[in-house]
Amino acid sequence: MSSGQEGASSPAAGLAAAVREGRASAVEVLERHLGAIAERDPEIHAFNLVMVDEARRRAETVDGAVARGEDPGRLAGVPVALKDNLCTRGVPTSCSSKILASWRPPYDATVVERITAAGAVVVGKTNLDEFAMGSSTENSAFGPTRNPHDPARVPGGSSGGSAAAVAAGFAPLALGSDTGGSIRQPAALCGVVGVKPTYGLVSRYGLVAFASSLDQIGPFAHTVRDAALLFEVIAGHDPMDSTSLDGPAPSVLDAIPMGVEGMRVGLVSELLAGVEPAAAAAVEAAAEALTGMGAKVETTSVPATVYGLSAYYLIAPAEASSNLARYDGVRYGLRVEGEDVAAMFGATRQAGFGAEVKRRIMLGTYALSAGYYDAYYGQAQRVRTLIIRDFEEAYRSFDALLAPTTPGPAFPLGAKTQDPLSMYMSDVCTIPSNLAGHPAMSIPWGSSDGLPLGVQVMAPALGEAVMFRVAAALEGEAPPAPVPAGGRR
Amino acid sequence: MSGGWETVVGLEVHAELRTVTKLFCGCRNEFGAEPNTLVCPVCLGLPGSLPVLNRMAVELAMRVGLALHCEVRPSVFHRKNYFYPDMPKDYQISQYDEPINVGGWLELPDGHRVGIVRAHLEEDTGKITHVGGGGRIHEAAHSLVDYNRAGVPLLEIVSEPDLRSGEQARAYVAELRAILVATGASDGKMEEGSLRVDANVSVRPEGASEYGTRCEIKNLNSLRSLGRAIDHEAARQIELLEAGERIRMETRHWNEAAGHTVSGRTKEQSEDYRYFPEPDLVPVAPDDDWLAAVSASLPVLPAERRDRLAEAAGVAAGDVAVLVEMGLDDLVLGAIGAGADPRVAVNRAANEVAANLEAAAKLTVGAFAELVRMEAAGELTATQAKQVLAAMLESGGKPADIARARGFEALAADALTPVVEQVVADNPDAFERFKAGDPKIQGFLVGQVMKATKGNADGGRVVAELRRLAGLG
Amino acid sequence: MAERISAADVAHVAHLARLKVSEEEIALFAAQLGAVLEHAADVAALDTAGVPPTAHPLPVRNVLRADEERPSLDRQTVLDQAPRAEDDRFRVPRILGEAP
Ligand SMILES: [Mg+2]
Ligand SMILES: [Zn+2]
Fold it and tell me: How many domains does chain A have?
């Protein structure tokens, strides 16, 4: 584990260092951020819930530890915003759904335990597309989140609240979940760093499931270093998650200074096709910057990625249809009474789920149903194999791959809500990594009409060290980025 | 079975595995606790929770699989999706097309082999209590759910349709239960629901090769119910077919009090369970070392124990089934090994020892063998031996000491002869019938001798004496 | 565009998923699901003979835990979350069908 490198140029690492060394108090740091939230969150609506009292108690505990000469940990006193699909003991965890609006989990997600053990101060629960299904955070039962760069535009999604919270300066760090791009896409649209780790590196225990074989929790931050720091805190084996990988998580902070000299980076042609010119231009400029730093960059092909979107929109809804069956009004959450149990189930689910969630449950149920399984779900899983094989082939020639994160910048609220398919297209560049289980991250690079854009760095499974090296190198050469009102603090 | 028809039965047995904890979480696997006290985020299916597989449950499944001569294979869990309030996630995690055990067989005491299709792992559901309407599901005003049982590991053992009667089905379940208990996999208590049996019953004309339409009978919670329900259901189907009607595929429930099955759900349209591989669990692939270790840990199973005892005692395996079932085979084998007469040893164990099973544990092989030797040698009559053995079970002690204390000394041959002669003289008609070979009169004459000797005569020797006097050799 | 999913299909799927959808929703879903399935036609039509399905992105096996007890939840905490509870159990309306 590195600690000396957690430098002051990164906001979160800088805050933690100041709190650990007694140069700043966690309470002061928290109050500064609560002030920003009070000032601007009524407009942005990044949070479903600001945990004012809990956060103050927590910050006092951290300061108390420092005063006693104890080390509260690598995230000492750093405010962290949590996507509201991460379970917090005794604190409402709604998934931005009416069906869970009143639910208070009796347990903390593993990632919540880990950041808390590292001294972080959880500041609140952020808005999302209901059950993480969406790409704009408009599918929230509690109203949309707005993009801090332009409140008339979406922040992306589904982790739009977490991305906006970091971009608006409400918290230097946030956690989100990424099933088809739900961290990287809003990160790009809000001009922050967003990381989807290798499937299995971060425990999913306590993450309310959307699509279990694709979901992965990851960090949002202003800088690659801060994202690396939070990644190191949350990654690593958890016996509560059977899909959690054994063995130590990759150490990424130490790898960052190694640079990209001599590295082979592939530009994925399939993912460049069809994106807006500004998005393509950003990736090409990033490629040039890498070349300038001594990397060998070439355009390459990962052919099966063109089937990614279709395969994803069969697999993810199928798993979701099963994961969301449990919301039946019996044990927790909303209930709408009925004559008998079946009527109660139907009425509860009809009233509790929003349109997009119902649409995906329907799609997934259909894809799994008798007579259609082989053609849809089964076929999508075979396509998944093809995508993994094509990535493996590419990684024989390249250490990392480069692509746009999104087809374009943030779009206006309401622009795509009437046409689900056009909304689904927002994830076309990010989905392949989820299907393969590989790590990928978005870093701010370039802009389009004053709105931020992101470029995406992808690596093979457990290739986080290489991925963070490329991302950090790019970050150092990035053109000036748009800064939202509030910005960093 | 009744004229011209053959009954065809296949059984699905759900056995709760005897683990300390549930299949996918650390809650205690225990019967009879206060409602909803053995629950956690995982077995309540709370959002965000994830299952982690219990190693012991897998191992117990492997043990049963090996005992049933199955192939133990790499397996995958699937989700079986359907809505029901006793299922916390509204899907059941179960092994579907890649179960851990496939293709074995079970041998009944009479030597009949029953094919085993599969024996797979799955999780149990919670328990529903119906309130109002006499506790019956359809008349109830509302229902209450306790999730203590949700997530308890089950092994579902599916037989081939190889059974041909209620009696044979009973024998199959009894044998399966013995195997489950012997392997430590389950306590096999049907009354507590730790062993639950569903029977698929159909009938067909004798000699036919195709199966008839079957009905599934549920709610069979004793061996007695199982046998009766199958025979009644078969009779019902035969009656329908003979009346020219057809059998509807349906679930039927056994009503023990009424002695018949009643119609439940029709299965005209099959359920759509939308099975797919459980993404929260990874495949289980026992390696050779693990399999070998489990195989080596298996105890000697009932069939082999029966064979072993039957061979030592010189009888048919079916004749010692009860002794093996009661766990008295080691006692009898030990006594035979120590030179005891096999026939006498089997008889005493099957009668007196079986009658006081709790006390059998303190009976040493040596003392039992000595008792058997004394009886076989004529030092004790059968009646005396029974009394001595009962006393040994009651309060321990050596058979010789007990016999002496009670003044038991079998009549010597020279003392028996005059008594038998006196009985013959007193009952001339009866003795004439005995001489003529009437088999029913022997008991009367022996009884008279016993009466005269206050039970101190050896029955076998009394008969021998009677035959000698009758000139029957 | 060919109709990929009929209103009757949608109604059947809604029943399987226990969603008491309205008539308008059935029509809307039929169109929207049809569009997604139309888009997925490329995948459905792909020749994948001999390609095994991927259920898990990473090849992990035999993840097992020891058969050791862990604390269960406090019952009151659990029942406090229930929409209706009675007699220490979760209360549900009457059940018409039996478990399959
Ligand atoms: Mg079953
Ligand atoms: Zn549990």
Answer: 2
Decide the pairing of beta strands B71-72 and A451-458: unpaired
Q: Give the N- to C-terminal CA distance of chain A in Å, as an integer.
A: 26
In this complex, the residue of B90, B143, B276 whose CB is nearest that of residue A368 is B276
Residue from B276, B278, B284 to probe the interface with A (highest A Cβ count within 10 Å)? B276
Query: Are A60 and A101 in a shared domain?
Result: yes
ipTM: 0.96
C81 chain-A contacts, CB cut-off 8 A: 103-104, 106, 331-333
Catalytic residue among A94, A136, A140, A182: A182
Q: Is residue A134 part of a domain?
A: yes
Instruction: Tell the CATH topology of C7-44.
Output: Histone, subunit A (1.10.20)
Does residue A368 sit in the same domain as residue A449?
Answer: no
Same domain, A243 and A328: no
- Is the pLDDT assigned to residue A8 strictly greater than 70? no
Residues A215 and A329 in one domain: no
Q: Which residue of C has its CA nearest to A438?
A: C57
CATH of residue A467's domain is 3.90.1300.10
Domain boundary among A357, A382, A407: A382
For residues A366 and C5, is the Cβ–Cβ distance under 8 A? yes
Half-sphere exposure of A354 (CA within 13 A, CB side): 22
Ligand nearest to the CA of B42: 2
3-state SS of A138-157 is CCCCCCCCCECCECCECCCC
The CATH 1.10.10.410 domain(s) of chain B lie at 413-469
User: Domain containing A347: what range?
Assistant: 305-382
Q: Indicate the Cα dihedral angle B53, B56, B59, B63, nearest 10°.
A: -140
What's this model's pTM, rounded to 2 decimal places? 0.91
CB spacing of C5 vs A343 below 8 angstroms: no
pLDDT score of B380 = 86
For residue C90, the surrounding DSSP H or E stretch is strand C89-93
**Of A241, A310, A359, which to mutate for an interface test with C (greatest number of C Cβ within 10 Å)?**
A310
Q: Domain boundary at A342, A367, A382, which?
A: A382
Are A324 and A298 within one domain?
Answer: no
Distances (CA, A) of B354 to A458, B308, B311, C65: 73, 19, 21, 42
Q: What's the mean per-residue pLDDT of chain B?
A: 92
Q: What is the distance in angstroms between the Cα of A35 and the nearest Cα belonging to chain C?
A: 33
CATH fold, domain B413-469, is Arc Repressor Mutant, subunit A (1.10.10)
Does residue A187 sit within a domain?
yes
Question: What are B187's two structure tokens?
Answer: 């306590």
* Alpha carbon of A5: minimum distance to chain B alpha carbons (Å): 34
> Which helix (H) or strand (E) element contains residue C65?
strand C64-65
Whether residues A222 and A130 share a domain: the answer is yes
Going residue by residue through chain B, which has 473 residues, state the pLDDT in tens, using 9 for 90 and above. Answer: 457 999 999 999 999 999 999 999 999 999 999 999 999 999 999 999 999 999 999 999 999 999 999 999 999 999 999 999 999 999 999 999 999 999 999 999 888 999 999 999 999 999 999 998 877 777 788 999 999 999 999 999 999 999 999 999 999 999 999 999 999 999 999 988 999 999 999 999 999 999 999 999 987 889 999 999 999 999 999 999 999 999 999 999 998 888 888 888 776 567 899 999 999 999 999 999 999 999 999 999 999 999 999 999 998 888 888 899 888 999 999 999 998 999 999 999 999 999 988 888 889 999 999 999 988 888 888 888 999 999 999 888 899 888 888 878 666 666 788 889 999 999 999 999 998 888 789 889 988 988 888 777 777 788 888 888 888 86
Within this chain, do residues A421 and A278 fall inside the same structural domain, yes or no?
Answer: yes
Q: Rounded CA gap, B108 and B317, in Å? A: 10
> In chain A, which residues have their Cβ closer than 8 Å to the Cβ of B47?
87, 93, 95, 100, 103, 105, 208-209, 326
Taking CB atoms and an 8 Å cut-off, how many pairs form between chains A and C? 173
Kindly state whether residue A487 falls inside one of the protein's structural domains.
Answer: no
Is A483 part of a structural domain of the chain? no
